[in-house]
Design goal:
The protein is 37% helix and 23% strand. It has 521 residues and is of the alpha/beta class. A hairpin with a 2-residue loop joins strand 7 and strand 8.
């Protein structure tokens, strides 16, 4: 495999987005995936006729001309599309003493909040009204136009100046936390808990740890575009990106595990004006390719890692490849906990009015971020019956769970089933006789996450609180080495990782190429 321009390690959404977009730009790209299926944390798997999403199941703006969803913009660029089912309410929240629907329609959501706390509903509206102007400013700049280098400045000034002017009154919000906005607008304790919950579902952190643009984007998108589920599940998105990659000449190699990113040292020279002579510059580290587990070496001047920052810097690189101070700072980045997962196949008798998304908080006196207290539930066969055998549903429930303390020892199976009980109790809020309906049970632990997704401690990414640091971004100190995925952008979810792929791909081409692509869309 000669004359490669780019090698991408990992076929998660971030890796596939970067690879497919670079192929669209005319680069010769190959994606090396260790697993036998593509998709990373978004891959699907089948057991006994049931098809499960391993990760994301909530999507917004996958169709529609005005969508800001980075996935939609990339699929448009690739000439691909998805079939989806739109729905509203987008889900139900089940708190200890109340259950209520969550609507994407802002007025209907306001009315639901007002049933519990009329004053709190007014404060919620003030909170949303404070954030939505930031969304209005952001939506004038398409994700597909963004890049991660200095050339972003002339792009924004030259092509999106009106949107930049709209951004000026909201600049303080850009790095502000949602908690700061909440403190200035909301006093009602129930609504404050609700905002904390929505932030936790979005970023893995509560309001004071979540940056305001994340929630501004979420509020704007779910009120102005469809909340929808892709027919075929998350695998439909993965397949569309793979089709786009191949359509534009890229390659996907499944079962090709990358053992090492190859780095070489070079010594450049610079001209010293004061002494009128050339002098040696500082050593430069640059990538030359990758070595696979099967011993094969692939050469390319650019390597993009879709692995987490911890896995990239400790498993794929040698200690001497990175400056020690940089490496220590990067590896000290706090990580979001892993998860317990419960995948079920159940009988659907007398469940005609079942809805697809639910969030259950067991105890409002405990922190919503406490492992096992907040449980997320998805039943996607409500929208796509092909995911389950006739007269059955697929169920996916999950909750935070620390990696520490998990070992594959004699107690592993007992501990696994014990930890899954909080998920069963959550499901009983939705389907009281859930245990009698089960025909297939699969329990995943942080060790399952770490093994199948090859993720450091089974994490979903960094837990960097608002105002406590910046996300590392797509660039590294090694020339030609870039990173994409949830270690580079704030937010747990498909739009964030797809955006990281866009930023990386655009940074590797000239702005005029991106401008030409946008003109034809």
């Amino acid at each position: 495999m000669d004359n490669l321009d780019v090698i991408v390690i990992g076929s998660g959404i971030g890796g596939l987005t970067a690879a497919a977009l670079l192929a669209r730009y005319g680069k010769r790209v190959v994606v090396c995936e260790s697993h036998t299926v593509a998709g990373g944390a978004a891959h699907s798997f089948k057991r006994r006729g049931f098809e499960f999403d391993s990760g994301p199941s909530f999507y917004c703006g996958l169709t529609g001309a005005k969508s800001l969803n980075p996935v939609k913009q990339v699929l448009d660029a690739l000439g691909e599309s998805l079939q989806t089912v739109a729905y509203d309410p987008l889900g139900h929240y089940h708190l200890p003493n109340i259950s209520f629907p969550v609507y994407s329609n802002a007025e209907r959501y306001f009315e639901e909040i007002a049933k519990t706390t009329p004053q709190g509903a007014k404060e919620w509206k003030q909170f949303a009204d404070r954030l939505l102007p930031l969304y209005e400013a952001m939506k004038g700049i398409p994700s597909l136009a963004l890049r991660a280098d200095w050339q972003l400045i002339p792009v924004l000034v030259g092509q999106y100046l009106p949107s930049l002017f709209k951004m000026l009154p909201n600049l303080q919000l850009v790095q502000s936390s949602v908690g700061n906005v909440m403190d200035g607008t909301v006093k009602d304790p129930w609504v404050r808990q609700l905002i904390d919950l929505e932030c936790f579902l979005l970023s893995g952190l509560k309001a004071h740890g979540t940056i305001a643009p994340e929630v501004a984007f979420m509020l704007g998108e779910r009120s102005q575009t469809n909340v929808e589920y892709p027919l075929g599940g998350s695998d439909a998105i993965v397949k569309a990106l793979v089709r786009g990659l191949k359509r534009w000449g890229g390659e996907l190699l499944l079962g090709h595990h990358v053992e090492q990113i190859l780095v070489e040292m070079s010594h450049g020279t610079t001209y010293d004006r004061t002494k009128d002579k050339m002098r040696h510059s500082q050593s430069l580290r640059r990538v030359t390719g990758v070595r696979l587990k099967n011993g094969q070496t692939l050469k390319a001047p650019v390597v993009i890692s879709n692995a987490s920052l911890w896995d990239t810097y400790t498993h794929l690189l040698q200690p001497e490849d990175l400056p020690s101070s940089f490496c220590k700072t990067a590896l000290d980045t706090p990580a979001v906990d892993s998860f317990m997962h419960l995948h079920l196949g159940i009988r659907d008798r007398d469940l005609e009015n079942l809805t697809g998304h639910h969030v259950v908080v067991h105890n409002s006196d405990k922190d919503i971020a406490e492992p096992g207290n907040t449980c997320m539930i998805s039943i996607p066969s409500v929208w796509d019956a092909t995911l389950a055998p006739l007269c059955h549903h697929v169920v996916h429930a999950y909750t935070l769970e620390p990696f520490t303390g998990w070992e594959r020892n004699d107690d592993y199976e007992e501990k696994k089933h014990s930890k899954a009980q909080t998920l069963y109790r959550a499901l009983e809020r939705i389907i009281p006789d859930i245990r009698e309906r089960v025909v297939l049970e699969l329990i995943g632990t942080p060790l399952t996450h770490a093994h199948y997704l090859r993720r450091y401690r089974g994490t979903y990414g960094p837990a960097i609180k608002a105002g406590k640091g910046m996300f590392p971004g797509v660039q590294t100190p090694i020339q030609g080495l870039y990173r994409v995925g949830d270690s580079t952008m704030p937010g747990i979810g498909v739009p964030a990782v797809a955006a990281s792929g866009i930023l990386c791909a655009n940074t590797l081409v000239q702005p005029r190429q991106t401008e030409e692509l946008l003109k034809v869309l």
